[in-house]
Please model this.
Amino acid sequence: MSQLDQTSNSNWTILFICWLIAGISTLGALFLSEIVKFPPCVLCWYQRISMFPLVIIILAGLFPFDKSVIKYSLPLALAGWVIAFYHNLLYTGIIPESLQPCSKGVSCTEVNLDLFGFVTIPMLSLISFSSIAVLLFILRRRLSE
Model:
């Protein structure tokens, strides 16, 4: 296998991992709201607006591999990351509850899931968006060389 083939395969693998993270996150969000019946708050909906299209956009960039997928998926990942980061700050009490956008309906600070005392739904979202954004930055850098 030539050096060019190995590089192409590793680039495809990085994008595939992004798609896998987005897919698992989407299925997890749907599972928690539709099966477990945790109602999503406003910030959760905004994060879903950023995450759900990533599954389709990244998949379209995989077959065949298209480097322009970064141009469309990275802004969504960064927008989702900003919302998830704000949600975590609100959730942990760093930002006062008076600044939360969830004034009606489900509270953005309501604890639905708390694994090991620190893994929450907003944290899982932040980890997903962070992973996807970092991988897309790595891929963009590799393709620009």
Q: What stands out?
A: The chain has a mean pLDDT of 89.
